[in-house]
# Entry
Amino acid sequence: MTGPWPLRLTLLAAVGGLAVFPWVGDPFYVELVIHLMILGIFAMSLDLLMGYTGLVSFGHAAFFGISGYLLALMTPESGGLSIWLALPVCLAGTAVAALVVGWFSVRTSGIYFIMITLAFAQMAFFFFVEHQDFGGTDGLFVADKPFVGFGGWQLLDLRDEHSFYFFTLGLLVVTYLLLAMILRAPFGQVIRGIRANEARTRALGYPTQRYKLISFVIAGTFAGLAGFLEAAHTEYVSPSHLGWHESGLVLMYVILGGMGTLYGPVLGAFVMGLLHDQFQDLTEHFNLVMGFFVIAVVLFLPDGVAGLVARLGRARGGGPADPPR
Amino acid sequence: MSEPILNTLDLSRHFGALRAVDAVTLEFAPGRVHAIIGPNGAGKTTLINLLSGDLKPSSGSIRFKGQDITGAPPYVVSRLGVGRSYQKTNIFPAFTCFENCWLGAQSRERTSMRFLRPARRYRSVRERTERALALCGLTERAHVVSSAISHGEQRQLEIGMMLATEPELLLLDEPLAGMGAEEAARVIGLLRELAADHTLILIEHDMDAVFAVADRLTVMVNGRVLETGDPQDIRASPAVQEAYLGSGEGGG
# Structure
């Protein structure tokens, strides 16, 4: 079965809207939307774990930050680092980190999984805080944006704000499509089963821990993609990128946006980010307003913002609003 | 008698001081329906959990087709060809009946570590799924979310999911629990049909059903095997009558 058409059209329209935004939007907001799209990739990666595998990680920012540090460390002062080297190294590095963390973490579940992922992320946090070679609490600057091209020929100038915008938008769409593909494939069926009833999934013949570990590594790698983009965009990475505060924020995007929908967490990142931006200007007590917003969503929209969109957009009494199975 | 498909040797499982299963030595002949009966708390479900790998034995061993499977995890046991259904309905409530059976059917592929092609394009899996749905009588309910079907239908689905894994040996833990008379008759018919080319190990409280399908019976009491034999012998056994059949407890 394919996904519900109203949803697909809405998503296409949203991508279309994002594609024209740089020409009509204020440069400040173009900059902000880049950041939000990066957070959207980050949130989608966590949704694979939370919304589909049933693993609530409270240390997902570790992979976001590690990737940024890798980029900062490998970028030479003179710049000109090829993205064909930088991106694979950052992704492979986070994949290995996720494999190590996941190896231990997937043996636990529930509250213990939350605690062990938090513990690993805090270890990474303090590692970078305490090592002056890695900038300590000040963090590191990324000397230059990666070079996208072949040899001397440049394909895309990431120093240009619009180019970076479309680069990020492209990767946001690619991330969504790749994750949707994985979820539709046999692997996706198994992790959904694990979320719904792990014991029965095991009894049906699946070594569930292996599937959870692979899911954890995939999620970590996509978080690494987001971290790579964030560090390249701001040309800066600091321990706060992998702190528990960052892990908590991305958890909120996923929960408020709507777990198990992929597009919901992106929506969550956008709604939270834009509200934050608006209320920050209005009042110094914006955190209070954000708090009320969070409570309101949890109380009135148990399926998150995506649940509301699905409810409004549902032409007839269709199925749930998750992507095609 | 031919080589047993499954046998246990001094199989025990203790929970603290409780000997839930106590030195059980049993042989299950291929192609037969072997029912295990006994009062509540006799250790029947614990025995099934040991056979399926859901529980690890405290001591003793289990062999399936000559291979030692003692302590093997459930997914290994399942992939060797042992299917089980649960006494307490154990399904994926948010999935449709089709999706429930799909997961069983897909597990017979060499691996599910596949990330590219949509799962629904795997024809062999689809065929197994549809066969399982037809066998358990849920073809017409295939696309209904399984939390929305009746209790009896969920019991049928429970069996369907197991059948989707195409097992050789079926461990059925009270397949008729909580079923109406009509549904029960249906499932008894299905068990008879399955008995033609499977080995069945059946726990059941409904004695009429047991005597209707089983060709061998084991009576368990307090974790131990009291007696094993053909149905008419068991029915006639004074020890069994006293311990179980006559007590009215399991008359169901």
Chain B has two domains: 1-81+167-252, 90-166. The beta strands of chain B are 6-15, 18-28, 33-37, 59-64, 67-68, 82-85, 169-173, 199-203, 216-221, 224-229. Chain B has a mean pLDDT of 92.
